[in-house]
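sry for the spam today, last one i promise. struct tokens for design, 557 residues
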């Protein structure tokens, strides 16, 4: 008995000692844990039975959440939402560039017809200048059209390394996601860094509905919209949706489409709608806790200034030219008078109640966020003045450039490269053009010439159409020796924005305007080109083997 008692005492003492050691080891980590707490995913309560792939985690905001809540919230009563946020976000130190505090890990939910292409243009220009890694879908510009299915994604850029053989240079995460998608937090977390900043945008639902219906009927000619009469298609969608709407949410652009983009499961039947209503409050709560900033179309410039402050961007980073606009009167040649009655609006609001609740909530929240900012309206006024100068500068000769681009695109679109013989000619021409116009070593030139011979003998198993677009992307353009006179003329033609309390001095060149005016798909192609170049250079070095580089890139091309 005595021996057992001593054993018990010894075990007790050892246990206490181990406990004290553990406490002492954890103490230095306590402060860091508090800073990181806002960046750790938390378990979501939203698990509707109809969707096994729904979000299973949610990320807490990078801002301090205050305990007090609004007494009156225009949506989802009797729920606690993250409606109040600090004006000074806590920034996780890894989510910044080397030389400044700017945020470089960003997810932007590109909501249809809500000025999202303009925000995407801003983020792509930002990422291109800093060689950041974008989430790039393999075969299109959509990440997903359904929450449970994602397109194949290109691997992220390898990390920069002094030694290209350094395995530590590999990365398994991307920096920026800004393509169209149906939001799915669980799937996105596999692509992005844990400390990513989540941004979205919303628009007044009826205006967004009109813009989408017009855009996708007359420009993209969606089948379910195309078959409706152009004089009555708006009222047809409102008054008889069962007959005129798309058959699935993935195909529809005119029914609660913002909520669908944010990841809400919505059905058409009365039972499905009632089921969605039961879980909408929890969905909204999760969405509010995930997105650090949801911009407002109706306060777009104010939203951009708030974005600039939260991401620690410069004013130079957020100047823009409005993108992806579509002239309804010019293209459709019909009146904007759709004879919408009050009864039509009541029916529309009831049917699209999810979008109205989503919009009302985030409209209230961003107004509260703006109200907490100091000297905010002064900066917005200054930004709008700069924006006016930039847009006027970039508008010069834009019509001529646009017409030239349309003519070129039309010619290229009619090239008969679908025929094998013509495609062979095209790829050989591409090889010769690449050798003539790109910077490369003598060895790389010989490899390209040998590649041409292999193609002519039909020994190559790679898809020729992929080679046509890939080869020019592997090399930098040759630059002719600049003429000092041309440089002086270029400097004189640049727009100079003087330094102020809100910005350092910066210049806007014709090349900057070209990027701001660039159509979405063209800019996506530019992002892809840079991604390929950086991937090849970081993996193989500048004196890469063309054959090895092509083999590597075509695996995910």
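last one done:
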């Amino acid at each position: 008995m005595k021996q057992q008692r001593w054993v018990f005492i010894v075990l007790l003492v050892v246990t206490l000692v181990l406990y004290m050691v553990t406490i002492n080891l954890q103490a230095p980590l306590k402060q860091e844990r508090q800073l990181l707490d806002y960046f750790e995913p938390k378990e979501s309560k939203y698990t509707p039975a109809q969707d096994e792939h729904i979000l299973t985690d949610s990320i807490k905001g990078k801002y301090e959440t205050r305990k007090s809540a609004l007494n009156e919230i225009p949506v989802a009563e009797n729920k606690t939402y993250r409606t109040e946020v600090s004006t000074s976000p806590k920034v996780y130190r890894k989510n910044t560039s080397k030389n400044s505090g700017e945020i470089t890990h960003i997810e932007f939910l590109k909501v249809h017809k809500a000025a999202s292409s303009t925000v995407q243009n801003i983020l792509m220009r930002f990422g291109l200048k800093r060689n950041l890694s974008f989430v790039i879908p393999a075969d299109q510009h959509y990440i997903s059209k359904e929450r449970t299915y994602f397109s194949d994604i290109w691997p992220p850029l390898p990390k920069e390394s002094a030694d290209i053989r350094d395995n530590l240079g590999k990365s398994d995460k991307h920096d920026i996601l800004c393509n169209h998608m149906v939001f799915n937090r669980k799937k996105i977390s596999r692509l992005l860094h844990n400390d990513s900043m989540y941004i979205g945008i919303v628009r007044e639902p009826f205006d967004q509905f009109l813009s989408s219906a017009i855009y996708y009927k007359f420009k993209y000619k969606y089948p379910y919209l195309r078959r409706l009469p152009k004089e009555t298609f708006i009222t047809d969608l409102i008054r008889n949706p069962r007959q005129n709407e798309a058959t699935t949410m993935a195909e529809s652009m005119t029914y609660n489409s913002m909520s669908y983009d944010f990841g809400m499961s919505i059905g058409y039947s009365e039972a499905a709608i009632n089921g969605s209503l039961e879980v909408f409050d929890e969905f909204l709560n999760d969405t509010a806790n995930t997105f650090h900033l949801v911009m407002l179309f109706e306060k777009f410039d104010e939203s951009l200034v708030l974005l600039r402050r939260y991401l620690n961007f410069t004013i130079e980073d957020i100047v823009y030219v409005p993108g992806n606009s579509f002239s309804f009167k010019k293209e459709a040649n019909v009146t904007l008078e759709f004879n919408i009655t009050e009864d039509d609006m009541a029916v529309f609001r009831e049917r699209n109640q999810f979008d109205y609740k989503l919009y009302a909530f985030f409209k209230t929240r961003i107004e509260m966020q703006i109200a907490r900012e100091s000297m905010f309206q002064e900066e917005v006024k200054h930004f709008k003045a700069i924006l006016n100068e930039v847009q006027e500068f970039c508008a010069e000769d834009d019509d001529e450039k646009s017409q030239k681009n349309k003519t070129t695109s039309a010619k290229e679109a009619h090239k008969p490269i679908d025929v094998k013989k013509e495609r062979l000619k095209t790829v050989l021409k591409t090889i010769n053009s690449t050798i003539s116009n790109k910077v490369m070593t003598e060895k790389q030139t010989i490899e390209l010439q040998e590649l041409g011979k292999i193609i002519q003998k039909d020994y190559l198993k790679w898809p020729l159409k992929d080679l046509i677009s890939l080869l020019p992307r592997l090399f930098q353009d040759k630059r002719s020796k600049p003429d000092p006179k041309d440089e002086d003329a270029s400097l004189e033609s640049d727009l100079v924005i003087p330094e102020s309390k809100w910005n350092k001095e910066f210049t806007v060149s014709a090349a900057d305007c070209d990027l701001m005016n660039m159509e979405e798909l063209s800019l996506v192609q530019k992002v892809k080109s840079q991604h390929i170049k950086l991937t090849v250079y970081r993996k193989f070095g500048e004196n890469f083997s063309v054959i090895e580089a092509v083999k590597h890139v075509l695996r995910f091309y």
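The first strand starts at residue 41 and ends at 43. ok im logging off now
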